[in-house]
Specification:
This protein is α/β, with parallel strands linked by helices. It has helices at 16-29, 40-48, 50-57, 67-75, 86-99, 113-124, 143-153, 166-174, 189-193, 202-206, 210-217, 222-227, 230-241, and strands at residues 3-6, 9-12, 33-36, 61-62, 103-108, 129-134, 157-161, 182-185. The chain is built from 13 helices and 8 strands. A 6-stranded parallel sheet has the order 4-3-8-7-5-6, sandwiched between helices. Strands 1-2 form a two-stranded antiparallel ribbon. The two termini are 24 Å apart. Bound molecules: uridine-5'-diphosphate. Uridine-5'-diphosphate (UDP) binds next to helix 9.
């Protein structure tokens, strides 16, 4: 399988269709495997956060999320061929899961968001079974109970939206006890599915400006956005000196 390393993170270089087929195959195996969708921010955080790096390394599917990683791969001289986003991949996967009558559990985001996302997804993808939902602001001591309720609902897919690096670390910490086909960390995706956050229009996305659109809507992301160009300097450094 085609893999490309960007700033020390090994990405699967797959088209959306290929990634969906691989995910369905992994879910079929039922080994509670992890999937992650690192964006530039996560790649940068992984440089200093060893636990996050280990969680990404332990994942069987690593989807490059967004334009930053794609462009950094070019700066680095080892280009990714496919430019996809975590949410587009997730939507394509849910569409196929609906055809197969499969089950998804939604974990994360503020109270009521996962539930609303579940209602909307059930309408958008008839046949998809919403196995259960839970918000993402729980006491770490309640994790055992949450894992139990996820297991009892027997999902093929567990979507974990707790923000990074919490979601990657949470998945790794509980992977052994979780009984799911596959689990995937997807940041703010449930907010979008619930209609709480609007995605950039297609024209902005094509230009690779989704981050700018989000910044306009959520100006408090400025500090996060200002750090992102760091991935290009890092990629250049690795090209020249490693
Ligand atoms: N979140 C959560 N629990 C937490 C912290 C964050 O459920 O303890 C949720 C938050 O409500 C949001 C998501 O995690 O739905 C993170 O969204 P963000 O926009 O930061 O992610 P991005 O898409 O930028 O990676």
């Amino acid at each position: 399988m085609s893999r490309v390393e960007v700033c020390g993170i090994r990405f699967d270089d797959l088209s959306i269709q290929e990634a969906v087929e691989r995910a369905l195959w992994l879910m079929e195996e039922g080994r509670s495997v992890m999937a992650v969708t690192p964006n530039a921010e996560i790649v940068l955080e992984a440089q200093k956060n060893q636990d996050l790096r280990a969680a990404v390394k332990a994942s069987e599917l690593v989807i490059p999320d967004g334009i930053g990683v794609y462009r950094a791969s070019r700066v680095q001289g080892k280009p990714l061929h496919h430019r996809i986003t975590g949410i587009d991949f997730c939507s394509a996967l849910l569409a196929r899961m609906a055809e197969l009558g499969q089950r998804v559990f939604l974990l994360g985001a503020a109270a009521g968001v996962a539930e609303e996302a579940g209602k909307r997804l059930a309408v958008r993808y008839p046949g998809l079974v919403i196995a259960g939902t839970h918000d993402g602001y729980f006491d770490p001591d309640d994790a055992y109970e949450i894992v139990e309720s996820i297991n009892a609902s027997a999902p093929d897919l567990l979507i974990v939206c707790l923000g990074s690096p919490r979601q990657e670390l949470w998945m790794k910490q509980h992977a052994e006890r979780l009984l799911v086909g596959m689990m995937i960390g997807l940041g703010g995706t449930l907010d979008v599915y619930a209609g709480r956050v609007e995605r950039a229009p297609e024209s902005w996305r094509r230009l690779g400006l989704e981050w700018l659109y989000r910044l306009r809507r959520q100006p408090n992301r400025l500090r996060r956005v200002l750090r992102l160009p760091g991935i290009f300097f890092l990629a250049l450094y690795r090209r020249l000196f490693k």
